[in-house]
Write a structure and sequence with these properties.
The protein is built from six helices and ten strands. It has about 220 residues and is of the alpha/beta class. The protein is globular and about 45 Å long. It binds zinc ion (2 copies).
Length: about 220
């Protein structure tokens, strides 16, 4: 009964995608090659609807709870970065905070956001590190966006990602994370392992939702 037309995986571009599950408002597909769970295009919000949702979540850079949340990616990165590193916070949202936290430790950080900080010049630069917190689950074309970011990182640099990881189908069924209509890509540990193999580089998992993609320099990209 779940006959959806084959939809190409937005991460690995494979056609080997199949029905995963359906809830009251959307369907989810899974890619058997990279394990990405994703929402078919027909359920994607328009850019305008998407922005309206983000406008509701104006994070305050002074909010200690928000800072504690971001420290989960900020602290491990700081521990691995050289002094005075040059970074980019990609998808900083309407209240850039992570960039301030790095700056407080002597790093320099550019910000970029499709809706709130449209600075296309960042795509001409090279970075020691890039952060994308609560970003990848929103991407319509994660293959292109991740490739673009990875390309901007210097050899030896780090792409730090924060996203909740999909565990298995029974957990997915009850998962609050999929209730957000702007969440359309759900990565699992195997998805990032696939990415590490594809980029020929090392992936480091920290806690439940932080993934560091090291650009080791032995890859071809
Ligand atoms: Zn895939
Ligand atoms: Zn999100």
């Amino acid at each position: 009964m779940h006959n959806s037309p084959a939809e190409t995986c937005p991460l690995c571009k494979s056609q080997n995608t199949t029905h995963y599950l359906r809830d009251t408002f959307r369907e989810y597909l899974i890619c058997t090659d990279c394990s990405l769970v994703f929402v078919p295009k027909t359920f994607h919000l328009s850019e305008q609807e998407e922005k309206q949702r983000y406008d509701l979540h104006r994070n305050n850079p002074e909010d200690p709870k928000y800072r504690a949340f971001l420290s989960r990616i900020c602290n491990p990165l700081k521990a691995r970065l050289p002094k005075r590193a040059y970074g980019l916070d990609f998808g900083c949202g309407p209240g850039p905070t992570l960039s301030l936290m790095f700056q407080e430790s002597g790093h320099t950080v550019d910000i970029y956001d499709k809706f709130y900080a449209h600075n296309p010049e960042i795509f001409q630069r090279e970075y020691d590190f890039i952060t994308a917190t609560e970003v990848v689950e929103h991407l319509k074309n994660p293959q292109r966006e991740l490739q673009k970011l990875y390309h901007l990182i210097k050899p030896g640099g780090i792409l730090g990602i924060m996203t909740k990881l999909a565990i298995d189908k029974s957990a997915f069924e009850k998962w609050h994370y999929k209730r957000d209509p702007t969440h359309i890509c759900f990565f699992s540990k195997s998805t990032f392992e696939w990415l590490g193999n594809t980029y020929k580089t090392e992936i480091e998992f920290i806690g439940a939702d932080v993934i560091l993609i090291h650009k080791t320099g032995k890859g071809h990209r």
